[in-house]
Design a protein that fits this description.
- The chain contains 12 helices and 12 strands.
- It is an alpha+beta fold.
- Helix 2 links the parallel strand 3 and strand 4.
- The longest helix has 20 residues.
- The protein is globular, with a radius of gyration of 20 Å.
């Protein structure tokens, strides 16, 4: 039995402290669930076998199991179970992988997957003291991004900042500042063009008056980015302009078996043909999508030469470029097949939502270009990567 993508939707992605700053993450998630199900009005909500939801935080208004909370807030029957997955940046892609396995094994026919993150509203946390009533001050720790309350037994090389980890990638692979800035400008240019052409109109549902991704800068240029100071090393190459920003947003994807199409009331748009996960040293996380995608392609039974579209989450320009360079060496036909509608540097990267975004975008890109095979891939902090291969059902006929 195969698992299929039937439809997808996401919120606009808002800037940190931007237009979505006042929206709770559980409400963001509930909103995209409602918008997704509005695309399948004939589907009996009680026929949804499972909600699998991605979220990287869980420490605040997510209430730990935001998948269940969002399903209830969206008005799904209380009989529909809900689960929350945390694989950091890959959480919602992992949710789709889990949901597709449930369908393939026959445990489910219809699974609603997705993810959410409000990086603006991520709380500060206080560690519990070892003894009651300490006389010393306690520091509140931000849960917005990165390592927190690190176990002292973790090797120092593993716990460098995400930015420093990517500067190390640059040291290893020699991807200079100019090339990173050019890649970032391309991301903004393609995202702006996609919005102007209406590509995102049926993929994005407005929230709180925000109708477009808030971080896209159509006027971005290499000259402007060249004026930004390095963010992680005095002589570094990574800046706020060639890395993804802190963001708020949610995404949702409706998965089902082939036989579920009649109940959903839609034709499937893509088949999940392969999945891959890979892990390596935590500080090398940016390179992990390379092998994750290779594994997904092997399980789909195809090679890079057959791939017609790639959606790679742009955590940093440098890690995106080293991944694309590796895939070109392995047979990817053209770097221009990657992120043809812009990427996370422009659109934003709300951690728990990005996997659902790239999956939904890939399915639509494959349809629009008439390509049969595509890859959605994402790097994940602490040394992991995930990838999914989609087959365009229209092109497969």
């Amino acid at each position: 039995m195969s698992a299929f993508v039937y439809t997808a939707v996401r919120s606009p992605f808002g800037r940190f402290n931007g237009a979505l700053a006042g929206v709770r993450p559980d409400d963001l998630a509930a909103g995209v669930i409602e918008a997704l199900l509005a695309k399948a009005p004939g589907l009996d909500r009680a026929a949804i076998d499972e909600v699998v939801w991605g979220n990287a935080n869980g420490a605040g208004e997510e209430n730990r199991n935001v998948g269940r909370m969002a399903a209830l807030l969206a008005g799904l029957p209380t009989s529909v179970p809900g689960n929350t997955v945390n694989r950091l940046c890959g959480s919602s892609l992992d949710a789709a992988m889990i949901g597709s396995r449930q369908i393939e094994t026959g445990d489910a026919d219809v699974v609603l997957v997705g993810g959410v993150e409000s990086m603006t509203r991520a709380p500060w946390v206080l560690p519990k003291p070892g003894k009651a009533f300490p006389a010393t001050d306690v520091t509140a720790v931000s849960t917005t991004l990165g390592w927190r309350l690190v176990n002292p037994r973790m090797p120092k090389d593993w716990t460098v900042s995400l930015g420093e980890a990517n500067e190390q990638l640059q040291d290893k692979y020699g991807v200079g500042r100019d090339r990173q800035d050019e890649f970032a400008v391309r991301s903004h240019r393609l995202a702006a063009a996609a919005w102007d052409e209406g590509f995102y109109d049926d993929l994005v549902t407005p929230v709180e008056g925000l109708a477009r991704d808030e971080g896209v800068r159509p006027d971005s240029s290499v000259e402007k980015l060249a004026g930004l100071k390095p963010s992680f090393r005095p002589d570094g190459t990574i800046t706020a302009g060639n890395a993804s920003p802190l963001s708020d947003g949610a995404s949702a994807v409706l998965l089902g078996s082939e036989r579920a199409g009649t109940r959903i009331g839609l034709e499937p748009i893509a088949r999940i043909a392969g999945r891959g996960a890979f892990a390596l040293d935590p500080q090398a996380f940016g390179y992990a999508p390379v092998e994750a995608a290779n594994r997904a392609l092997a399980r789909a039974g195809i090679g890079w030469s057959e791939v017609g579209a790639v959606e790679l989450n742009e955590a940093f320009a440098v890690q995106s470029l080293v991944c694309v360079d590796a895939w070109l060496e392995q047979g990817l036909k053209d770097a221009e097949l990657v992120n043809t509608r812009g990427g996370a540097i422009a659109v934003g990267h709300p951690l728990g939502a990005s996997g659902g975004r790239i999956l939904g975008t890939l399915a639509k890109v494959l349809r629009g270009r008439g390509e049969r095979w595509g890859v959605a891939a994402i790097c994940i902090g602490v040394g992991q990567g995930l990838a999914v291969v989609l087959e365009n059902t229209e092109a497969a006929r």
